[in-house]
Amino acid sequence: MLIPMLSNGLEKTMNLAARKQWHCLVLASLLLGVGLRENLDAADAFSDPIDVSFTAECDGTTQKYVLLLPSGFSAEESYPLMVALHGHGSDRWQFATSTVNECRAARDVALKHGMIFVAPDYRAKTSWMGPQAEADMIQILKALKTKYKIEKTILVGASMGGSSSLSFAAMHPELIDGVAAMNGTANHLEYENFQDAIQASFGGSKREIPAEYKRRSAEYWPERLTMPVAITTGGLDKSVPPDSCTRLANVLKKLNAHVLHIHRPQGGHSTTSADAVKSLDFVCDHVLTEEKTTAK
């Protein structure tokens, strides 16, 4: 919706009645815009969340993910897929239902692009993309691509999920067509927080199994990240410091034509709604535009 703007000079020449009429017109336009947005939201909504259980091939445990299907979903049609990874202390429901900036932005962008949306537990609250979470992710992607007609797969995440998105994309670039990582780390050999959880997930400390930590550190494997990549960081982030992701982004810009790094020097451990949407749209636009161009 476009709202006309008046110059100061023109506004001064208008009499009181005209100005009142003008303000009523603008107010009506704004109210109409709100109504249209509400109608669009109601029409362009996901299905009710489907809580999916499966038996993990790696250890026989029951694992879960949440599935959201776009409005008007048809099993006969092809869809892009967005897989969203939650943060430390949360589970699959965070990206599926939370209204925090990163989660809402992911769902909104997925809806806008008509995507299937999946939020895995990937070993839930303290995952950090260890070997079992990695195996679950591979199994989930295989199952989804078998059941649905998946065009492209975009992986997103915030905090622990942002770290895990970079880790998984670097370990399995053949499975991922684009990645958006918000407030994560790209270097597990360097990262010092949440070490009890990471050691339990990875199977030992960085002193005991340094190769495992290096394998899951995207900074060591920039040549594998050939897909569109968006990274957000905050200069004041103490929970997951931005240094490794900043270095990774700088290297990727020399190797990859489609890289976006949004850094807020005064930002903390969060991404604004606008930055989250911008980063997600950047990846989706490049991946899905390329897919459509290739199809032609």
Task: Describe the model.
The chain is an alpha/beta fold and 296 residues long. Helices cover 44% and strands 18% of the residues. It is built from 10 helices and 8 strands. It has helices at residues 8-13, 16-43, 93-97, 101-112, 131-147, 160-171, 195-202, 210-215, 243-255, 273-295, and strands at 50-55, 62-68, 78-85, 116-120, 149-158, 178-182, 229-234, 259-264. It has an 8-stranded mixed β-sheet, sandwiched between helices. Helix 4 (101-112) packs parallel to helix 10 (273-295). The longest helix is centred in the first third of the chain and has 28 residues, at 16-43. The protein is globular, with a radius of gyration of 22 Å.
In short:
The chain is 44% helix and 18% strand. The chain is α/β, with parallel strands linked by helices. Mean pLDDT is 87; it is low at 1-43 and 292-296.
> How much helix is in the residues?
40-55%
Q: Given the C-alpha coordinates, what overall shape results? A: globular
Strand tally is 8
The main sheet comes to: 8 strands, mixed
Rg measurement, Å: 22 Å
> What structural class is derived from the secondary structure elements?
alpha/beta
Could you tell me how far the N terminus lies from the C terminus, measured between alpha carbons in angstroms?
A: 32 Å
Tell me the number of helical segments per DSSP (H or I, 4 or more residues long).
10
Low-confidence runs: 1-43, 292-296
Question: Biggest sheet, strands in spatial order?
Answer: 1-2-4-3-5-6-7-8
Question: How confident overall, as mean pLDDT?
Answer: 87
Helix and strand run: HHEEEHHEHEHEHHEHEH
Strand content: 15-25%
